[in-house]
Structures are given as C-alpha cells and as structure tokens.
C-alpha cells in the first residue's frame, strides 16, 4: 500500500487576516507561527511598497505561493477593457518582483447591465491573450482560478476547471490553473479535470463550505468546519503532480473579527490535521 | 429568416405565492389572470386534498406542468433512505392523480455530518433506480432537476445538466430533466447539454439571478430583474424540441411579501415580454 503523499507547505493568503494585519504583520506572523509561505493581495502589497515587500519576504525566507489577483477583464467599453489590460501588466510586474509562483486570475463577471455571458467569456479570453506574452517574457505563470458558479454574474464568468483548462489549451505555455477547493468541490467532473490539468496546477487553496452558508462571498469556513473532503481533493492534485504550497484563503466576516494570531494558530493546526 | 418559436404557455408554480395563497386560491388566481398552467408543491396539494385538487384543476382547465417535489434520497442510515423511497412512491401517486407533466426531483444534499459527496451521489442513483419502475408503471415522468452548485451541500448533489443526463442514460425510459434557468444559466457546457437532452426535457422553469444575490435560497428575481438571458436559454430548449409550459418559480422573500394578484400580473407581463 502506498503512503499518502506528504502535504505541501502551508501558505498564508493575506486576505485571511485583512481586517487587522497589513503585509508587514503577515510576514512577521508567518515567521512567528513557522508558516513557510505567503500569498499577498495587491492592496497590502502596494500599501507596503513592492520593493520593500519583496525584500522583507525574501529576508524572512518565505515562499510566495501566489499574488492575488489579476483579471477582471470584461468591461462595458473598450476603454474599460484597455484599463484592465494595463492593470494586469502592473500585476505581472508585481508578481515578478516578489517571485510569486503564479499570478492568480479572478477573471471578472458580466459588465454592468449586460446579460451577454458568452460575450463576457470572450472578453476574458481576449484579455488573457493580450497579457500572456507579457507574462511569459516576465517569467510569471498565470493561474486561472475558476470561481464558484454563484459568483458568475459579478466576479468570474470562469466557472469550472474544465472551462479553465480549455482556456489553458487555447492560450498555451505559461498559463495554468489556481485551484480552490471552495470553488470546485461540487463539480461532478472534478477528478477527471484535475487529472487533465496535470502539471498546469499552479496553485492550491483551501478553506471550507459551511452549512448553512449565509453569504455568497464572505462566509467561507476554516478547513475542517465544513463539508468539503479536502484530503480527497488534495490527493487528486498531488497525484496530478502538484508539489507546491497549500494556501489557506478565508474570506470570512467571522474569522476577520478574530485575533489574527489565533487565526494563524488554528489554521496551522487544521492544515496538519484536516487538509 | 425563421421566426422565433412561439413561447410556451405560462404556468404558475405555487411556491411563488406560498406565503399568502393555498392551492384553491392559486387555481382561482390562474383563472382570473388567464394563466393556462399550474405546478403545485406537495404541501399545498396535500393541504387541499389530492382528489379535490385534481378535480378543481381539471374543472379549471389548467395544464399541470409539474409536481414539486420528490427526491431527497441521501440519508444517514438505511431506514432514512427507505423512508425517502416510500415518500417518493406517494409523490408518484400524487403526480399521477393530478396529471402532472413530470414529478420534479430535488435529489438531496449530503447526509448530516457527511463529507462523502460521491457516496451521496451514489445514494441518489440507487434511490432513483428503486422508484423508476413504479413511476413508469404509473405513467409518471421523472424530471431530474439539477440544482445550482451552491445548493450541493444541503439540497442537491445533482449539480449540472450533464450529470442529470448521465443519470437519465443510466436509468432509461421515463426519466427526463426539469430545467430551471436559475440553476443552469452559468454552465459553460449548457448549449451542448441542452441539445443532448433533446426530448428528455420534461419541464422548463424561469426566474432570474439578481445582482447582488443576498441569500442562497430565497432571493430569486422576477424574470427581467436579473442577468439571465432567458430568451437565449428558452430558444435552446425549444430547438431541442420542448414545446411544454414555461413555469415561473420564485423563491423570494421580497415577492412573498407582495399581494399575490400583483405578483401574477407582473409575472404574466414578464412572461410575454422578457421570457
């Protein structure tokens, strides 16, 4: 009988403690709790200053499992779509500066007032096609993150892993997927698509689905508090060849209200016992 | 150029006005608003008495686009699963008594405390396999309704049309699908799967996805108030051969608080203008 593969190193996604800690506190918190990785959101990165942040992350010896986030391509007019492209180029520069394993892409929802879902999906494809050469020349891997279908209208028209991999196929080298158990756990086609993803898995995120879930965005659970079989999905991802970090990303009003040191402590314990 | 196919007859799903009207008022309301169809939930049907309801629906000349609902197969133990089978047999009897075009199946979520999603899906398959012969002999079509993935934990592990059609393939004659735009609009594979469904489409439901959506169950929108391209999905369904009713089903605290005659009036206007 084969032993289960060892779990990858834990990484703190900074949004998990965003109400109380900036990036400097997150870096110090990772050191204090012996958490080997970090994945900043761009707001805290920019607030600290990209150069200074890159130095401090490096000095702390942290791996950077991702930068959150590029994307948001669909817009009501050409100027809006152009602005998104420019912002994504800046995100690529930032991901390169901090040595992120990938730039996570939250692709965007329908433009305001639009019901044209195929059109929005086409805008995502076209926006990505414009930035991929720039990312490739910067050595930054694009991590397409399929988001839960309940976010389709306003956050991500990229809804399934299969759809993300079709985009990877179309866009070629340098484009992978960022897989969050929260967004994909329900998918009847999940195991087949994870096997298909193979070496294109650029990031793996954990949290949990609570019953009941009281908010479509800000009610994610701590791993172990919900119904997702995280070890089963992790095993699929590792069987596909992924050996990178296991990033814990909670968007949760309940956990934002807690002392961040307590959040990190519980997160680490759950990483070791239920992920 | 081909003319767009004529829209099917409107049908009132009784849950739309459930806070204020029982089945008798719904039947009278359909007559008053010249709404040709009705689809009762079992609670209002049983409250009126199945025999009496069947007579009054027939006398009112209403078509019955469905009976809501059977399903809820997964359970923590064998006794619970057995009870679900028995209840589904009663639902089949009721659907037969009122001449429902299909018995809509909301298949059920994870058993309490379980994280075994493949196991729950297997329970759904096995439960359906047990009742399909009974439904077939009663002449009642089973309408498997894939529910939005946000309901996977607690209402339906049947999450996509593709998954529902795989079940239809496995279960054979007498099993079709009930398609609600709310549950499937986001699916990147939708047009292909609707074409695959063909004559197995046993019901078609409308409502709308609101932005923002503030509740995972009870915040559905009136057709036209949200972002779903209902005519596009209706055209796919009709191109697949469906010529049945267009059933409006709102689970909405906002609309439940309104005068039901106003709800029916707006529903009918929207059916004619945006569906």
Topology, number of strands of chain A: 9
> Which chains have the largest interface?
A-B, 32 and 32 residues
CATH homologous superfamily placement of chain A: Divalent-metal-dependent TIM barrel enzymes
Please report the number of helical segments of chain A: 11
CATH architecture of chain A: Alpha-Beta Barrel
| Name of the level-1 CATH class of chain A | Alpha Beta
Structural class by helix and strand composition of chain A: alpha/beta
**Main sheet of chain A: which strands, in order across?**
3-2-1-9-8-7-6-5-4
Radius of gyration of chain A: 18 Å
> If you consult CATH, what is the topology of chain A?
TIM Barrel
Number of domain modules of chain A: 1
Query: How many angstroms does the end-to-end distance of chain A come to?
Result: 21 Å
Task: Indicate the topology.
The structure is a homodimer of 275-residue chains.
Chain A: E1 10-13, H1 23-32, E2 37-39, H2 42-48, H3 50-59, E3 63-64, E4 67-71, H4 78-98, E5 103-106, H5 117-138, E6 142-144, H6 161-171, E7 175-180, H7 181-184, H8 190-197, E8 201-206, H9 230-239, E9 246-248, H10 253-256, H11 260-274
Helix pairs in contact in A: 4-5
Question: Can you describe this structure?
Answer:
- The structure is a homodimer of 275-residue chains.
- With 275 residues, chain A is of the alpha/beta class.
- The first copy, chain A, has a single domain, classed as Divalent-metal-dependent TIM barrel enzymes (TIM Barrel).
- Chain A has eleven helices and nine strands.
- Chain A has helices at residues 23-32, 42-48, 50-59, 78-98, 117-138, 161-171, 181-184, 190-197, 230-239, 253-256, 260-274, and strands at 10-13, 37-39, 63-64, 67-71, 103-106, 142-144, 175-180, 201-206, 246-248.
- In chain A, strands 3-2-1-9-8-7-6-5-4 form a nine-stranded parallel β-sheet.
- In chain A, β1 (10-13), α1 and β2 (37-39) form a beta-alpha-beta unit.
- In chain A, α4 runs parallel beside α5 (117-138).
- The longest helix of chain A has 22 residues, at 117-138.
- Chain A starts with 9 loop residues before the first strand and ends with a helix.
- The model of chain A has no long low-confidence stretch (mean pLDDT 97).
